[in-house]
Amino acid sequence: MSARSLFAKDAKTAARNRAERRFRSYGLAAIVLALLALVWLLVSILTAGAPAFRQTFLTFPVTLDAQLLDKSGTGDPALLAKVTTTTYGKLIARALEAEIAARGIEAGEVKPKEFAKMLSEESSATLRNMVLADPALVGRTITFRALASGRIDGYYKGRVTMESAALDKNVAPAQLALADRLREAGMLTIAFNPGFLTMPDASDKRPEAAGLGIAIVGSFLMMAVVLVLSLPIGVAASVYLEEFAPKNRWTDLIEVNIANLAAVPSIVYGILGLAIFINFAGLPQSAPIVGGLVLTLMTLPRIIIPTRAALKAVPPSIRDAALGVGASKLQTVFHHVLPLAMPGILTGMIIGLAQALGETAPLLLIGMVAFVRDFPGGFFDPAAALPVQVYNWTTRGDPGFVERASGAIIVLLAFLILMNAVAIYLRRKFERRW
Amino acid sequence: MTLRCLALIAASLSLLSGAAVARDQIQIAGSSTVLPYATIVAESFGENRGFQTPVVEGGGSGAGRKKLCEGQGGTTIDIANSSSPIKPSDIELCRKNGVTALMEVRIGYDGIVFASRRDGPEFALTPEVIWRALAAQVPQDGVLAANRATRWNEIDPGLPDLPITVFIPGTKHGSREVFDQKVLETGCATAGAEALFAAAATGSEEEQAKAATKACLTLRADGRSVDIDGDYAETLARVAANPDAIGVFGLSFYENNADRLRVATVGGIAPSVETIATGAYPVSRPLYFYVKPAHFDLVPGLRDYVLYFLSDEIAGPGGLLAGYGLVPDPELATTRAAVEAGTILDMGGETVSGGDAPAATQPATEPVAQEQNAPANVGRPATLVALLALALFGGGAFIAGRQRAIGLRAKGTAPFHSVPVYHGALVLLTALLPGLLGLLAWGGAGAGGSAALAAAATLLPAAAGGAYGYGRIAPDLRARTAVERVVMAALIGCSLIAVLTTAGIFASLVVEAGHFFRLYPAADFFFSTTWNPQFRGGSSLGIWPLIWGTFYVSLIALLVAVPVGLMSAIYLAEYASRRTRAWVKPAIEILAGIPTIVYGLFALITVGPLLRDWFAQPLGIGSSSSSVMTAGLVMGIMVIPFVSSLSDDIINAVPQALRDGSLGLGATPSETVRQVVLPAALPGIVGAILLAASRAIGETMIVVMGAGAAARLSLNPFEAMTTVTVKIVSQLTGDTEFASPETLVAFALGLTLFLVTLALNVLALVIVRKYREQYE
């Protein structure tokens, strides 16, 4: 038997070291996989959604013919409001035809009367609203920026090609060719579309005009309800459970209950909301108040858990000192423990709100999927919600809505990042080590 | 006590709901087929008519009609869209709830078309050909035999030599009813099979006819006829992936996707708005909406909306809706005249006029809604006024109480037990509580009368209580103790909300599930292996296919999440440097913070098509982009952080001494992890995995968008399957009637889901808790 140095590896040690390296690389691979999945998810959503923020517009002068719009010549707003979008549509069609002729742009096979089919149906409504807002415009010539139709827009985003257009009854290849020439002439531009963030939802005929305005307002109203209800209730419940509750079977039951509620599938809260708030209490469908109440019930346990952790983190010496100088137990908690725990509580609150903001399933069951065009005036008016709007758009027939659904996700994620950033900032700023 | 609690809750909720009534938006709900048309009209109406844009909701014909029949007045909807005529049970419900007048408005027809991929061959079909391709049994030489046709040209030599695959709407869809009636039954009769089926059946003539119809509608189960439970977009995706397949679509859907589909002729006629309107193309169904004439005076613009919808420029030939694929009703002018004349539906008899028979006429007189609505209209402002008055009064009471205590203390008669603030707070409470009780009593009594009455009902008790509290202020009054007792009661009350929520969930599920089990045998629900909801009753609602789908998706999710999550937890806890850990851990946790709708969209537009094009189709094992694999994979990514974060905490909690001992004996770090750390942490890790499983089972949006809607027991992970949560959503928002087992089954499913996740959660919590105690 030869003498073995401890420094020379025998076969078994080498095998063990190889196993060690393998194990380590599995761990690393797992982390890389998880991070790659995250990157893949974000990149896929961002690339699919980014085009929603840019839109194709056609810009041309429109003469607001007083003969058509204001036959009485009085400028009376009530009479102006009687003129329908059909009339404005004709006005726009005529103006576009004139402008293309004036610029000498080759129309190809597109008949002059059909130029206006390249525009969104929304444009006549936009023009009408402009005139109703400012009746002095009647009789003047204004530069009008109209949304291009969804198919033309899709052509510049790669969704529509010459081949697909040949088969599509909503657009013809000749129109696409004309669009290219309009672009060279500078009439057709692709620009940032603020309407995506401010305009209401639109019907299936005009995907290009659909926006997130009402969904953002609706989500904001719901979050207001959740905040106003769940902050005081959540803090009160946590204070009781952490500071006062005797340790017995009942409080144990409540604790298990809360831990379980935090893990109950969110769709079950939707069933609860449908049964209690809508069927039993008769609250209106699609209203932010109902959505807010359901989300409050769902968020409460998710807030109570971090709030209790924050209260627990306050050292007992603080309580002892307060009690020692004669404060009552409630005074101790409200004057000393709670203020010290507040940063932790707020952080938990914001993270709970962020979760509530992204929740979809329960809202589907309580009718937050409605088509709403008027901005809500309060908590009881119908509204939409951001995540539900995403779902709603994925079920529509026109392919243009898929891009908008991804765009809406970007907006939703932006809000979530903002809220979490605030939470992290608060935690960093007020974090205290005892 | 419980009763009193409930009464209090009901009263306060009724105060809230009274608040909801004064509305100036028309509210519409119902059929998802009518939904796009209704939104187009609503949009145009809102733009042109100076009224607010109506609020339009989908949710299915059945749910819409149920909501319509919930009663009269501002809290109920005005119009229900419906893709089928109203059912006697709906009318029964309407009558019961005081809705005595409805108008039936037929808006046009929806064509059902057959289409294949754009680059595929032309198909010239007839109902008989379709029936012969899909039926379970077909006549051969005058005898019934199992259907063996596998290629189209075996049925008709004129058809292409291609395998038969047809995607037809699932049984929850309204369009399936039309397909059954207009295609299968017609085809069955033309093929001469109906007579054969009838002859084969026993019993009376009526029973024979019934059996024949049933046999005609029985489709082959060898995968050539595929039910699509999702929407047309899903059918389109399946057809786009399969060059030989034929799919069934709505005309408007086809027309808006004509660049990708080639339409088949039926009986030599190509479907179009014109051919369907003349009746030359046979497969179509009427679309309706039902409106409450009683609401004409209640909701501004409702009557205008109905007439606007029926005007020629909207629903007429060449109108706005025809441009989107609605087939105009040739009798539009008649319907319009009927609405103008106030013609309402005959709700007296058992059978109700369908689309073909003209509705009976009755004058519309409806004062009920006005009366019902009047007090409710007062509700919101009155409640607000009363609450505001109470708040002001309370503020005053607080200041008065505190000032009096300060004044008394300054006189220095005796040392005070409590500081003045507590005296103020006590007066505030003695005023506030009776005031709130008064307001609740007013709400409980029906919230009638004016705002002044509400304020009086609130302020009188408040003043009395406040005066009593004010009078009691004295040096030896233990105001602080009293206030603290009330605050403590409030704290306890808040912590009880969690218990109340659980009780509410349980009660709402149990009550409705009870209704379901009264209509449908529990044994069939729990033990049957077929899930096949039918339009005309006689559904099989066995939970097993759904449980299997749920289990399969969750299993794949865990197969992804557990190895990845656990290994990254081990690496982070045992190997990673502090700096790596500081950024990797939060980065992985981002995955848990992303809303599930994002994962759903990711599954729908990225993962699903990718798996289909790169795995399922090349391997020849599936053509669907929504599949168990898609949903499982995406859900696996979502639950990675649930496994990794909790496991990481638990591995960190294993005492360092154990590691040191193992390493000291010469074990490598990986041996230490495998043989010492993991066994010690095992219970906690099991708990973490159980929590992740519970999360996966209850997840909704990913499976709704990624897993498909077909209930089947299959092992192929590239098939579309469905889960319990998907069916909760789809049955509650389907075209079926609400009071039917097909809808109520959602509550039984919800109850099952709740109990299963409850068991998993409690088990996991108990394990994790026990484990923590062990090392603390």
Strand order of the largest sheet of chain A: 2-1-3
Low-confidence stretches of chain A: none
What's the number of helices of chain A?
Answer: 18
Structural class of chain B: alpha/beta
Largest sheet of chain B: 9 strands, mixed
In angstroms, what is the radius of gyration of chain A?
Answer: 31 Å
The total count of helices of chain B amounts to 29
Q: Considering DSSP H and I runs of 4 or more, what fraction of the residues of chain B is helical?
A: 55-70%
Structure characterization notes:
The complex is a heterodimer of chains A (434) and B (776). By secondary structure, chain A is mainly alpha-helical. In chain A, 63% of the residues lie in helices and 5% in strands. Chain A contains 18 helices and 3 strands. In chain A, helix 1 (11-49) crosses helix 18 (400-430) and helix 15 packs antiparallel against helix 18. The N and C termini of chain A lie far apart (61 Å). The mean pLDDT of chain A is 88. Chain B is an alpha/beta fold. Helix content of chain B is 60%, strand content 9%. Chain B is built from 29 helices and 15 strands. In chain B, the strands form 4 sheets. In chain B, strands 1, 2, 3, 4, 8, 9, 10, 11 and 13 form a 9-stranded mixed beta sheet that branches. In chain B, strands 5-12 form a two-stranded parallel sheet. Chain B has a two-stranded antiparallel sheet with strand order 6-7. In chain B, helix 5 crosses helix 7. Chain B is flat, with a radius of gyration of 33 Å. Chains A and B meet through helix 1, helix 7, helix 10, helix 11 and helix 12 of A and helix 1, helix 2, strand 2, helix 11 and helix 19 of B.
Structural descriptors:
heterodimer; A: 434 residues; 3 strands; 63% helix; extended; B: 776 residues; two-stranded parallel ribbon; flat
Outline of this structure?
By secondary structure, chain A is mostly helical.
